Amino acid sequence: MSPGNSSDALAFLLVGIPGLADLHRWVFIPFCLMYLIAVLGNCTILLVVRTYQRLHEPMYYFLSMLATTDLGLTLSTLPTVPHVFWFNTMEISFPVCLTQMFCIHAFSFMESSVLLAMAFDRYVAICYPLRYSSILTPTRIAKVGLGIICRCTLTLFPLICLLTRLSFCRSHVLTHSYCLHQDMIRLACTDTTLNSLYGLTLVLLIVILDPVLITVSYIMIIKTVLGIASREEQAKALNTCISHFSAVLIFYVPMVGLSIIHRYGKNAAPISHVLMANIYLFIPPVLNPIIYSMQTKHIRKVKCLLNLSKAAIQPGN
């Protein structure tokens, strides 16, 4: 690996779990299961929503967006994690690392934006139920989806350009089995002030702003629900938010934990960085399909119909 600013020759070294190098193949088994569950679960949601006409509603369109971003987040780490844990191949070239970093952060930001859009969906459904279909039309939902893609990809291009201007003449060993922005700039031997400032701006505009707006949406939802006279109707209204609220917690809590460790946990054990990053990237795509399948009435009904259909076509029935 040649130091300096030659992007073609530059390479980084990925790492697995510190102190468990001899057990990497065993450690990869749960990773493999998580990949399988995430891909099958999110593909199932996309297939069910696309196939059944009764699910062609705003809530399920946004759920399809969430499943798509979860798939993208899962597949972003797939090129390197098996190589590190199963094949013990640690080296990754600078262009490939840059591409992976872009994909991971883009899909992560998209998931945050989709969760914000889903919060708005719940707000409109509960606070303005009679205007729900007229406000969230398929055309507007498509525009929201396009806006999310533009917001989360175009804002990352300056970050990529800033990274290509850096020189990496220190240790080229990263702290994860995939590439993250904060991990890469830590290894630069030139001034990274501009990178840090732009990265902080993105964090403020997306990672901080989105949960704040989600919180505002839930405050308005709770205010509306408390105005409903019937306890049964209150519970019914809040029940439609359980899946989304769970998805918000599953996504943002590990993200906050990872940010705190990267900023203030310099003396923390290396395994804590790796563990928190893996929870942040792997757990939401695995749990979101399970949560929505359990909590969403229409998806449960569709699954029951599928099971009945399979039973009906079995020989002897």
From TrEMBL:
Pfam families: 7tm_4
InterPro entries associated with the record: GPCR_Rhodpsn, GPCR_Rhodpsn_7TM, Olfact_rcpt, OR51/52/56-like
GO molecular function, one term: olfactory receptor activity
Segments passing through the bilayer: 26-48, 60-78, 98-120, 141-168, 197-221, 242-265, 271-291
SUPFAM superfamilies assigned to the protein according to its UniProt record, in alphabetical order: Family A G protein-coupled receptor-like
G-protein coupled receptors family 1 profile domain residues: 41-292
Gene3D superfamilies linked: Rhodopsin 7-helix transmembrane proteins
Main location: membrane
Single biological process term from Gene Ontology: cellular response to lipid
UniProt keyword terms in alphabetical order: Cell membrane, G-protein coupled receptor, Membrane, Olfaction, Receptor, Sensory transduction, Transducer, Transmembrane, Transmembrane helix
Membrane topology: Multi-pass membrane protein
Family: Belongs to the G-protein coupled receptor 1 family.
UniProt protein name: Olfactory receptor
Organism: Apteryx owenii
